[in-house]
Design goal:
Layout (H helix, E strand, L loop, with lengths): L9 E12 L6 E8 L7 E4 L5 E3 L1 H10 L8 H14 L9 E2 L21 H6 L3 E5 L3 E3 L6 E12 L1
Parallel strand pairs: 1-8, 4-7
Antiparallel strand pairs: 1-2, 2-6, 3-4, 3-5, 7-8
The structure holds zinc ion (ZN) (2 copies).
The site of one zinc ion has 8 residues, from loops.
């Protein structure tokens, strides 16, 4: 499979979203959420810059592994994520896309996820919304430009 993260182009986007205080440093963090609810779209975050990759080609390949007309089994999702970790190229920042990675506060670099909670990894593998921080980049696969979230519009409090 063609493992490119994007078509090589980058665009800047603005999206409505939310803001909340970082639980670690108290600074405001702005973000939006990307719904990935059609079937199962496997996605990974970079372990050093809060970028994420959510490619249609991965969703299609994972769907092809499922029984016809059914959602993939939990074990299939898990093994697909692990395969993705191995074969995806590095993030342009030099980091790696990892199941254990989660967006970090742009001010103090604290992890914004709930790592350490029981079954954290299992929960992570069933998430269907990507957290997209202001300033972070999303990669959507070989046919699309990468998108930098330039600004969160009208952020509501969370
Ligand atoms: Zn912080
Ligand atoms: Zn990165």
């Amino acid at each position: 499979m063609d493992e490119r993260l994007s078509n090589g182009q980058t665009i800047e986007v603005e999206r409505p979203g939310w803001e909340r205080d970082c639980p670690s440093c108290g600074e405001v963090v702005r973000f939006t959420e990307l719904n990935l609810v059609e079937g199962v779209v496997p996605f990974l975050y970079c372990d050093s810059c809060s970028a994420f990759v959510a490619r249609e080609e991965d969703a299609e390949e994972l769907a092809a592994q499922a029984e016809r007309g059914a959602y993939p089994e939990t074990e299939q999702v898990e093994s697909y994520y692990k395969a993705m970790e191995k074969r995806l190229p590095a993030c342009p920042c030099g980091g790696c896309f990892r199941i254990s990675a989660y967006p970090t506060c742009p001010h103090c670099v604290a992890d914004l996820g709930n790592k350490g909670a029981p079954n954290w990894e299992k929960q992570r593998l069933s998430e269907n919304k990507a957290v997209w921080l202001e300033g972070a980049r999303g990669f959507f696969g070989r046919g699309r430009p990468s998108e930098v979230l330039k600004r969160v519009l009208n952020p509501g409090r969370r």
